[in-house]
Fold this protein.
Amino acid sequence: MLDIRIPIAALFIVVGVLLVGYGFVVPTAVDVPLNGTTYSFNLNRDWGAIIFLFGIFMGTLVKMDKAKPSK
Amino acid sequence: MATSAAQIGWIDYVIIGVYFVFVIGIGYVLKGKMKSSEDFFLSGHNIPSWVTGLAFLSANLGAIEVMGMAANAAQYGVMTAHFYWIGAIPAMVFLAVFMMPFYYGSKVRSVPEYLKMRFNEPTRALNAISFAVMTVLMSGINLYAMALVFKLLLNWSIDASIFAAAGVVLAYTYMGGLTSSIYNEVMQFFLIVFGLLPISIIGLCKVGGWAGLCEKLKEPAFAHLWMHAGTSANPMGVDWIAICSGLGFVLSFGYWCTDFLVIQRALAAESLPAAQRTPLIAAFPKVLFPALTVLPGLIALVLIPGLGSNNEGMRYDMALPLLLPMMYPSGMLGVGLTAMLASFMSGMAGNVTAFNTVWTYDLYQSYIRPNQSDQHYLWMGKVATAVGILISIATAYIAMGFPSIMDYMQNIFSFFNAPLFATFLLGMFWKRTTPWAAFFGLVIGTLTAILHFYVLTGHEPFVYTSVMAGNFWRSTFAWLACFISTIVISFFTKPKPEEELEGLVWGKPKEVSTEVLVWYKRPGILAIIILVFTIALNFLFW
């Protein structure tokens, strides 16, 4: 049966790359006030990177399971 | 750097398109694995518990959860979290620890089939028919909610949205059956979390943190869970008795412990301990989900002036969708919209896969065409999937006639699920409960709910300060009517012989699991951890 982590990893890597790429090409600031200071974030780039890393994490779990000797 | 943009752009369409490719792709990959009806309807009983657990959660994570709970939070405040911390977690724990051994251990393929084994054919038929009707009615809500969001945010045609989403769900459930639905639900779970979490984080910063949010809420009672529940003079209009009996007991246990939509996910697990862990694994993210639904509803109440007005685009149901373009630039907007699409589609697919199983096994195979080949029932399951989706399209238009998603849903639940929980409670834990008592008890309970809704509500003493209060009390009355009448009729009718109750009733176990599990896989330990955490949250938001 298909390991569901594979499509999850692929989807999140693709979406992450799209967002990070778009964030660099069309930088858009999101202002977030915190403790009296306003911070500007490139949300597409930053959250896209988190989404990408989650995809890599899922893919790594699949790789690690495949590397384990079967019982 | 340009400032935040709210218009949908090409990148958003690309992200939505990529998502569609993946969901249909999963169905396509699984198509070749669907060799028997058991593969199609029950995933061959070989799915790991973390997958069934997240699917258990996501099947319930449709429009009602995502849009409805945010809307409720904007309307009723933090008390909406009762739907999670008293209205879900205890029932999920009860299902895992006490009821799952009967469902999984008796090897039933559906909830109505359990009723047949425990009681008789008429009880199964009654439940199968009412469940089939309920699932297609519920399924339509998701289509309607999705179409409404995309119409108001993006000006997409309502009809085109309904047919496009129905087409995608049809494609992957038709090809891959329950497995495809479960796999997509897991993927959708992560999309929903990653697509909606930044709204809560950014929104909370914008309103000055939790303390700032509480200060800005129009009533202090909006920020408390129990403090104002001593009487019904609170935003929800219900006192603690109605919350505990209507929501905490009848509605939540009626839904989480008897609704085949969620139980089907646990039945797909690879073993009994895995099936027991399924609701518990779901409970851990579930207990934190108010951060993605209730919190944005409260933030929307503060940041969106005029929310809740009569204007269609400003109704409470739009609380969360309206935050998307406020918080996200193009790009993340696509992720947020995909998260909402994912929630609507997982909610719909969950209903459709439960419908096709109950239709095929409990109605078609039992009463219309028994003794056919397995391939015939596999074919019928696929036909039922297509027909279920067509009926869902029709019910989407029925749902449009109701003032809010929540009103529509609670109506349906109070009619069907509330009395059913009384039948299950007695059936599983009192072996004297007789088959005919179960049947007539269910009929009486459902009729009580109908009588309460259509005749009594609005007349003294059945006058309620909110629609929600009416829902909670109607559920309590329906449950009580079913519970009492089932007990009374049981004393006048013949029970089943005890040897036929093996594995179906408390105290008559069929098999006892001797598997030794590490602590984090033991249902009892997981149940205690989640209950302690839930109690702590109740105190924290008192």
Confidence is low (pLDDT under 50) at residues 1-5 of chain B. Residues 158-206 of chain B form the longest helix (49 residues). Residues 55 and 363 of chain B are 25 Å apart (CA to CA). Chain B touches chain A through 39 residues (CB under 8 Å).
